């Protein structure tokens, strides 16, 4: 079944932008930065930031106890949420996207960045595609998504012409997921239905590998519980070659919002988290409420043996990076994200660095500082320049908690470690 894409509706763009501007500041702060009880997790700190607690002499007086307390506090605060030292880059502000987007999706095909869906505010989701052209640095070509396609937490991948769009959350706030799956032919901008996933997922890792569409991990139907399942189906030119998805080796660690990248016939899954916001029980609008999430730095790789191998970890835990990466010169470049929550305020902490995983040396580097910390940003690369747009930025240089949903587009010269 093929459907022609709809025409651009300018009036709606303006309305959506205004609503988003009004509501973003009010709601983002309330929801996305809300605090909750801290639960400790079994994650070790990098040794470079761990302070050894000195052994106190016997008969410690009150002063010594205080000293001990300070030491403990110091260690607790020397956690992974901190900014890492990173080279400054020369950032250039480009044309902003037609709408602000959080949890959107994007894929680059040649000189075009196709940008899909996302929240404008927590109560408003987009159901259209915007396209950025890296040649003349303009936005355009807006067309509608199918009415029954998910609006956020999508799995998405392209073969260079066809874009496969798998499952995701349907609707605003913390609504339920859909298993529905679609294909976009970017030569004709027509949509087709595709074989639904066996069960729905939120933000599963999704890639094309060895002629098959792979979908793994993500959150289960309650939005919080990590899924470990991994499915694949044979595909060619936007069509399924099999009737149903088949089960594959489960992922070692489940959960949403990780990067999933195929380079040189190897499949990598990078970062991500276990747990996410959930709908408040009984809420008629499925109001999002914070749940503890555990962000991780783990990297796993599948090769022809079809066994997961543990790769060197990221420089810090990083999540919300499913469309925030590019492969350039045999390196995976990852932009921004979220890391472990602040140990005292429990607020979500955004990431303001760019990371490089050099596949020649299998080493990670911190290769640049962003203009601000940002999560679920959408990334492209064109003629030596790294671009990012959309997502949710921090409150300011001194406060890494999430605030404004953005439409800005920025670029800087990409400098890689050989
Ligand atoms: C990628 O490699 C080419 C060829 O060696 C080089 O000219 C280019 O500068 C590299 N790009 C980056 C971003 O390092």
Automatic annotation (TrEMBL):
<dbReference type="InterPro" id="IPR015915">
    <property type="entry name" value="Kelch-typ_b-propeller"/>
</dbReference>
<dbReference type="Pfam" id="PF07646">
    <property type="entry name" value="Kelch_2"/>
</dbReference>
<protein>
    <submittedName>
        <fullName>Kelch repeat-containing protein</fullName>
    </submittedName>
</protein>
<dbReference type="InterPro" id="IPR011498">
    <property type="entry name" value="Kelch_2"/>
</dbReference>
<dbReference type="InterPro" id="IPR053256">
    <property type="entry name" value="Kelch_repeat-containing"/>
</dbReference>
